[in-house]
Amino acid sequence: MTTPPQPDDQQPTVPPAAAVPPASADDEPARDLPPAPMEGAPIGEAPSAPNGAAEPRSLRPWLLGGVAGAVIGALVVGILWAAGSFVGGDDAAEDAAAACGVFARVPDDWSRETVTEANTYQLGGAIALAQAAGRRDAEYGPLATQAQQVQQAVVAFDIDRVEQLVVDVRNTCDEL
User: Fold this and answer.
1) Does pLDDT of 147 surpass 60?
2) How far apart are CA 103 and CA 169, in angstroms?
3) C-alpha closest to that of 131 among 169, 86, 81
4) Which pLDDT band, with edges at 50, 70 and 90, does 109 fall under?
5) Is 102's pLDDT higher than 80?
6) List of residues 6+ apart from 25 with CB closer than 8 A
7) CB-CB neighbours of 31 under 10 Å
8) CA gap 155, 24 in Å, rounded
9) What CA–CA distance (Å, rounded) separates 106 from 100?
10) What is the chain's mean pLDDT, rounded?
């Protein structure tokens, strides 16, 4: 009597778990695993050790480190803020002088080729400084008004007007 051939794709059978013999003490040493957390154990503390002694893990070092970091960070920000109030600051004359310096550096002749991104940024900075000076001190009001007119001409892309207004601003700067 012969046994029928089995197809190649059939997997060998695995014996059920009950058929596997239990491990003996000679097979492999037991691993030391941390005890499982006990239900109702306080947060931040390890469960009791097998002998009944508690192994507390405190959150206090982490909390103290966080508070110390926040205090040091606030101190650094405070120092930088205080130092910033002594350097530069609310002087309208400095803003006007800076605006006039930038208006002096922009091109004299304006054309489509002259209206570059860099020149536009320079004009924007000078306009903002002139307007800040005008807000802080009424003496610089005419400068702020002329700077605003330059801004409107740039936005309208009225190149001839930009050229004339830059000359006007430079003349106002010479009078300050």
Assistant:
1) yes
2) 7
3) 169
4) confident
5) yes
6) none
7) 5
8) 88
9) 10
10) 75
Helix (H) or strand (E) holding 122: helix 117-136
Taking the domains of the chain in order of start, what are their residue ranges?
A: 92-175
Q: For residue 168, name the pLDDT band (cuts at 50, 70, 90).
A: very high
- pTM of this prediction exceeds 0.85: no
Query: What six digits make up the tokens of 128?
Result: 């903002």
The owner of tokens 């702020």 is: 144
Amino acid sitting at position 55 = E
Computed from CA positions of residues 20, 21, 24, 27, in that sequence, does the dihedral angle turn out positive or negative?
negative
Amino acid code (one letter) for 153: A
Q: What are residue 56's DSSP bridge partners?
A: 45
Query: Do 58 and 42 contact (CB within 8 A), yes or no?
Result: no
Residue 144 has a pLDDT of 93
Residues 36 and 47: their CA atoms lie apart, in Å, by 7
CA atoms in the 13 A half-sphere facing the CB of 60 = 4
Report the SS3 class of residue 45. strand
